[in-house]
Amino acid sequence: MKLIANDIYYTGVNDRQKRLFENLWPLPYGVSYNSYLIKGEKTILVDTVDICYSEIFFEKIAEVLNGRPLDYLIINHMEPDHSGSIHLLREKYPDMRIIGNKLTFGMLSGYYDITDGLHEVKDGDTLDTGSHKLRFHTAPMVHWPEVMFTYDETDKILFSADAFGTYGALNGGIIDTEMNTARYWDEMIRYYSNIVGKYGSHVQRALQKLAGMDIRMICSTHGPVWTEERTKAIGIYDRLSRYEGLNGVTLVYGSMYGHAEQMAETIASALADGGVREIAMHNVSVAHASCILRDIFNYKALIVGCPTYSNHIFPEIEALLGKIEIREIKNRLFGCFGTFTWAGTAVKHLAAFGETMKWEIVGNPVEQKQNISTEKQCIELGRAMAQRLR
Fold first, then answer.
1. What average pLDDT does the structure give for the chain?
2. DSSP assignment of 204-269, as one string?
3. Contact at 8 Å (CB) between 254 and 306?
4. Is the predicted pLDDT of residue 1 greater than 80, yes or no?
5. What are phi and psi of 252, to 5 degrees?
6. Is 333 left (phi over 0), alpha (psi -120 to 50) or beta?
7. Which of 43, 199, 211, 291 has its CA 20 to 30 A from that of 316?
8. What does the alpha-carbon distance between residue 244 and residue 329 come to, in Å, rounded to a whole number?
9. What predicted TM-score, i.e. pTM, was given to this entire model?
10. Angle, nearest 10°, between helix axes 346-356 and 315-327?
């Protein structure tokens, strides 16, 4: 546990064991589950942690409380990595009242069979505990329907559930001023694109609620506590939720025998010659989808290529397109290319995907038969994209 503000303690834990977040997304740097305990006139815990770490978590809480009862638990988010310890916590502190909204309590009953000792709040409601005045703001679909933010009007602290969170365990420091935060920014974008990405309009509505607040500290449920860099964290969420890409290209390809890969290399070279400095290239058979999605969210243009496979498209590319479509990514520039031996359909399917997404198609799709050179056409596609970005 660590004091991070006036009588507010960090009681979260690090998970360096889990390989895949949600059994989907790699965690090369681990992940933190953040919880916060306000020790004022009333004791208030904000969110819990994954049940796997409940023993460490309870030790931290007991140390902070130092014999005092736990008066309230605020549930900002019911996903099990944050709510998993609630049932055991209620057993330890049976008189603790649980604060949440109507949707929270439906999930609380369904997951943990807890239906009593509840204090329901609505959007804009407050709780004045004497030393702290807390205001609750619903933030549905950021990224579950029950999500809410808790704003401490006394100390100007926003407890933001998963919003502004990142992958990556906390290596000693808790607050951004105690660490080099460089490695967290790409992980924030990857986290957003994997977990929250579909719900950009909902994130925008949540940000509008925060616009008039004096926020001096952001306490998310994953990653660092943001103080000096809180504006940057909010700015990243604002940009990504508006689907505003940076001036760069994500170039993704699948290749069975190297022909599509060589086409990708030629296109990339033409992009660079055309002045594009941000080019993220991914072999879909090697790169994890979470990293590809991160770059697609981050950059304005996407070029995809692959061979025809069973009269359709390369399976790993098809799987990626499904992930993109689910997230409803908007406002991208799109180009495509493909290869075939006896029946070419990949380019047709890729072009149709770009139209389905309502993206702007840039340049002419390039289709290569066998090993017959399409170098000139690949250069033209790369140049066309570079020119459009300019």
1. 96
2. HHHHHHHTTS--SEEE-SSSPBBSTTHHHHHHHHHHHHTT--EEEEEEEE--SSSHHHHHHHHHHH
3. yes
4. no
5. -115, 135
6. beta
7. 199
8. 10
9. 0.94
10. 10
